[in-house]
Amino acid sequence: EAGVTQFPSHSVIEKGQTVTLRCDxxxxxxxxxxxxxxxxxxxxxxxxxxxxxxxxESGMPNNRFLAERTGGTYSTLKVQPAELEDSxxxxxxxxxxxxxxxxxxxxxxxxxxx
Amino acid sequence: GNSVTQMEGPVTxxxxxxxxxxxxxxxxxxxxxxxxxxxxxxxxQLLLKATKADDKGSNKGFEATYRKETTxxxxxxxxxxxxxxxxxxxxxxxxxDSWGKLQFxxxxxxxxxx
Lengths: 114, 114
Prior knowledge:
heterodimer; A: mainly beta; seven-stranded mixed β-sheet; 11 strands; 0% helix; globular; B: mainly beta; six-stranded mixed β-sheet; four-stranded antiparallel β-sheet
């Protein structure tokens, strides 16, 4: 069974540019989460999809971030325009069922905004 | 609000030494508690979990006990190996959140030398 995959593994962009991160969850997992770790600090929740619907987007920093999950499969997280403080590692995780205790994480996308 | 605090790293120790990583939390009710591990170049993996007070989670020689009275979930291993070198994250899932959203500590890097 394939795990959670993320693309790209690393992205370097200039301030003001746009970047789109992609996450492919484990097949059949309805729950998809995005998290971010900035500058070696704690990993923070961004948002949660249940299938194609946003269940909780309370962690999204501002309206420069847009997440989608068309068809309830893969998800994209777009940052437009990127700012320096958006640099960090973006993790995607998926799980099956409500209140599932185990989330399966992808390797993360390291975003560097210069 | 809920929060997780864990000891700062890096923690450097020799092979076969005893490892303890302290983790304390603040939360209402009875959250579920987790330790995740991130090996170099990989995504986070669930190491162990405990869902109620006095539960002990264990896996791969690691143990942690859910202590409600001290709001702690310290991770221990009696004899570490070089392969245990990784970043360890303590996390909680609040009882009020049945969708499993995780709240993490800042992570503790562990370096085990031969």
